[in-house]
Amino acid sequence: MNSTYIAALELAAGAVLVSAVMTLWRRSVRSIVSMLSLQGMALSVVAIVLALHEHEGALFVTGCLVFVVKGLVVPGLLRRVSRLDPRSRESRPLVNVPASLVFAAVLIVLSYVVSSRITGLSPSDATHLVPVGIATVLVGYFMLVTRRRAVSKIVGLILVDNGIALVTFLLTSGVPLIVELGSSLDVLLVVVVLQFLMVSMRHHSDTDRLTEMKGLRD
Amino acid sequence: MNLFLAALGFCAVGAVCAATLTRRVRVPVSASLATIGCLLAVGVALQVLITGDSSTFHTAQLLPMTGLSLTLDPLGALFILASSFVGAAACVYCVGYARGAMASRTAMTMLMIFVLTLLAVPAASSVMSFMFCWELMALSSLLLILTDQSHSREARGAALWYGVLTQLGAASILIGLLLMTSTSSGQTFADLSAHSLSLSPSTRSFAFVLVLLGFASKAGAVPFHVWLPKAHPEAPSPASALMSSSMVAMGVYGIIRVGADLLHGGTVWWWVAVALLGVVSALYGALHATTSTDLKRLLAYSTIDILGLVLIGVGAAGALNDSGLPSVAHLAMMAALLLVVAHAAFKGALFLAAGAVERATGTRNLDELGGLIHTMPSTALVVAISAGSIMAVPTLSGFSSEWLLLQGLLHGFTDASTPALIVMLLGVIALALTGGLTAVAFVKLFGIGFLGQPRSVDAANAVEVPLSMRIAMAWLVIPSLVIGVVPGLFISLLNRAASTGMGATVVSPIDHGTGLVVSQLRGAIQPAALLVGLVGVLALVWLVNQRLAQRHARRVDAWGCGRDLQTPRMQYTATSFAEPLQRVFADVLRPQSDVEVTHVTESRYYEQSIMYENRVGDVLEARGYRPIITAAFRVGVFARRLQNGSIHRYLAFGFVALLVILVVVA
Q1: How far apart are CA B25 and CA B206, in angstroms?
Q2: Structural element, H or E, at residue B59
Q3: Most Cβ neighbours (<10 Å): which of A27, B84, B370, B665?
Q4: CA gap A17, B592 in Å, rounded
Q5: Using CA atoms, how far apart are residues B285 and B279, in angstroms rounded to an integer?
Q6: Which residue of B has its CA nearest to A110?
């Protein structure tokens, strides 16, 4: 039982990180959004596995909620946006794809180095996976910085949020339901707002490349 | 206390009315409410000064966490008296003056709040209440500076200078006061006073220096004065009258309250520092007043000058008290406080008159005025009396107070300690020199502005201002006359206020009576008798003149010097009048003049036109503040390179910061 639990937890957490790295690799906006959907589902699996192991009903509900919001609703919304321009691709990111992957590896190593203290506080099967969550946060942030398309930036932002959620699940077996509910709704709201913003940007400048916004400074 | 709260209430209701009523009724209703409030406050303040009773009020409702604490004591009451007296005049003046931007909702509301806070600041008796009222006072006056949009560029610059200096000052005061609360059990002034002696001497000195910096900037002491000659001219006249007469006095109030009352006097060098600030300010202000050609700018510089004299008095009082001469110290403090009250009245009147002149002629440049005594006789009379008072003409209030200050400074010579001696020596010199310079400045103001022939069409066509404005100006002349002719009647009121922080001596060094008789120091003066004598001599001269005068008098232009044809261009201008002084003090004033001669093309021997330009800037602004501003600007330009509008770069900053923190923490 215990080894199955560890294996499932490691698999799911690994899937979260792998899908984060995959978003760096893929160029087409559609497949980036699919990776995000995959990650949301993997995250919900982490929560559900933890809930089953520790017999916490609230965490189980949270896991289902995460599945619906981050696995289905948010990617669905983003897919609708990307359908406006089906061939939109992350053609020229600020850091190219191979370099991004190398950098992601560096970030993962860094997160293992820095989180050794946190895992040292209470070593357990779950807390050993904390570096995976921190690595997801860093990879998400990296994506936020280096990708040009607004959709990719939103995806980066959600990756950061997913990474934070993963860390909280692993460290504290989930924050209270109400807090998780609040932050999920926040993300949803951000996505909706950005969706509007993007539609209007497209209306004005025919692109969602944020580089075009430089002119707004003065 | 209840009456005082009612006075504050009237002003507050005035502010609400100003904010809600329609344009037609806004000004009269709110101004009359605030006038009633101010008159009530005058009554309350006089009562406190006469009886010497202190009363306290505390409510937890008005300010969150700490509540609002108010205390009426003689020192505070004296400053409330000065502000409310001028406040009443400013509100009455507003009825006739307010139109256009000044009658707007914002301006009237801010004026009411400004009056309210001027009454509340001297009464506030806890750190939080004081800072709340102080900041409200600064904010409302800041918005008033921005009211007049016709000089919007200058007004914006002035507001920026004022805002920055007053906020730095307020921060400095707040830090100083909080340092003092570190050992006390609470934050009311009573707690601070009771516990301030348990602070270490260095902490006390540090707190005093911080507080002094803040209050000195409000009092316009050089070198923190830069905002004053910019801000006071730009504000609408009722506001500049209040700023120049009452608000700057709050700086003096703060120094006395914190230094003498809460910190119990401290060491002698504190007061030497205060007096030195005063000496520098008095000389610098007087010198610039003589060379200013803008009516209100001249008045603003003379405010720096008079406040400098007040600071000399306060500093001398502290230093003398420290060298064991409490009665002379008491005299110096009384002189300083008398000068505060006298200055509030005559400077208020002068600023209101300047507003009247600006309203009537559309300019405040002295070089475009002249001959206003014929078209605006009432205003001219107000200016004559107030200018006489500021020049310390005997039988007017400036003379009484400056005479008293001189007595305080001179009579300490015999057995004062060395630091006190230096203060007094410098003080006497500054008093003498500024007396002369102020006389030049105000002879210029009256001579160029009101006598002679008009220098512009607008000045020739000036019409006397409405009745309410004249009443307001006349009201402010009363103290000049009363304090000037019978100073003894008023001086007894100052006794308790002046003994703040001086131990138990409330015995006035000045004998009872209408004149000023300091029997301990063998100094005495009877302005009433002087007045009788003066009138007698004038009557005699007139009689003799009548008897000896030729039957057939020849009538020529006034100041025509016998010439038949006299044009306005042949008169002195404000610039030419001050030119000799400007030459003498060129090292301090650093004037810049340009002469540009255009010749007729045919011959180099004939000039077509000559243009002469003369500018006197503020040296301290150019040499002291500009380098700091330039440096800050450079830092700003450099920092701007960091933000180039690229959202990727902003995100990268955050990312790099996160990575650095992670690495550092791990």
Answers
A1: 51
A2: strand B55-59
A3: B84
A4: 72
A5: 10
A6: B663
Could you give the CA distance from residue B364 to residue B299 in angstroms, rounded to a whole number? 11
Residues in chain B with pLDDT values less than 70: 149-151, 501-507, 519-521, 550-554, 557-560
Span B509-524, pLDDT tens digits: 777 777 777 766 677 8
Query: Residue A146: closest CA among chain B residues belongs to which residue?
Result: B648
Two tokens, residue B650: 């902003």
Q: Decide if A145 and B655 are in contact by the 8 Å CB cutoff.
A: yes
Helix axes A130-146, A97-114, angle to 10 degrees: 140
Q: Is A22 on the interface with B (CB under 8 A)?
A: no
Q: How far is A217 from chain B (nearest CA, A)?
A: 5
**Which residues, other chains included, contact A44 with Cβ-Cβ below 8 Å and sequence gap of 6+?**
A63, A64, A66, A67, A70, A71
Q: What's the domain range around B430?
A: 267-500+508-542
Residue B174 maps to a domain: no
| Interface predicted TM-score (ipTM) of this complex, two decimals | 0.81
Looking at beta carbons, which residues of chain A come within 8 Å of B651?
Answer: 141, 144-145
Per-residue pLDDT band at A214 (split at 50, 70, 90)? low
Q: Reduce the secondary structure of B429-493 to three states and give it as a string.
A: HHHHHHHHHHHHHHHHHHHHHHCCCCCCHHHHCCCCCCHHHHHHHHHHHHHHHHHHHCHHHHHHH
Element (DSSP H or E) covering residue B198: none
Closest residue in B to A114 (Cα–Cα): B666
Q: How far is CA B413 from CA B1, B323, B518, in A?
A: 42, 11, 16
Q: Domain locations in chain A? A: 2-210
Q: Is some CB atom of chain B closer than 8 A to the CB atom of A119?
A: no
Does residue B6 fall inside a structural domain?
A: no
Beta carbons of B644 and A141 less than 8 Å apart: no
Residue B658 forms contact with A (CB below 8 Å): yes
Assigned domain for B454 exists:
yes
CB burial of B292-301 (b: ≥16 within 10 Å; e: otherwise) equals bbbbbbbbbb
Residue of B nearest to A153 (CA): B648
Size of interface A-B (CB pairs under 8 A): 43
Which residue of A94, A117, A141 is in closest CB contact with B658?
Answer: A141
Could you tell me what percent of chain A has a pLDDT over 90?
A: 17
Contact A214 B659 (CB under 8 A): no
Confidence band, pLDDT 50/70/90 cuts, at residue A19: very high
Computed over every residue of chain A, the mean pLDDT equals: 82
The pLDDT of residue A175: 63
- For residue B135, being part of any structural domain is answered with no
Contact B655 A141 (CB under 8 A): yes
Q: Closest Cα of chain A to B151: distance in Å?
A: 26
Chain centre distance of CA B335: 16
Chain B neighbors of A100, CB-CB under 8 A: none
State whether residue A148 sits within 8 Å of chain B by CB: yes
Instruction: Report whether the peptide linkage leading into residue B223 is cis, meaning its omega lies within 30 degrees of zero.
Output: yes
Interface test with B, best of A114, A143, A208 (most B CBs within 10 A): A114
Q: What is the pLDDT of residue B309?
A: 95
A43-77 per-position pLDDT tens digit: 999 989 888 888 888 888 888 888 988 889 888 88
A213 and chain B in contact, CB less than 8 A: yes
Q: What is the pLDDT of residue A211?
A: 59
- What is the number of structural domains in chain B? 1
Interchain proximity A217–B659, CB inside 8 Å: no
- Cβ of residue B598 closer than 8 Å to a chain A Cβ: no
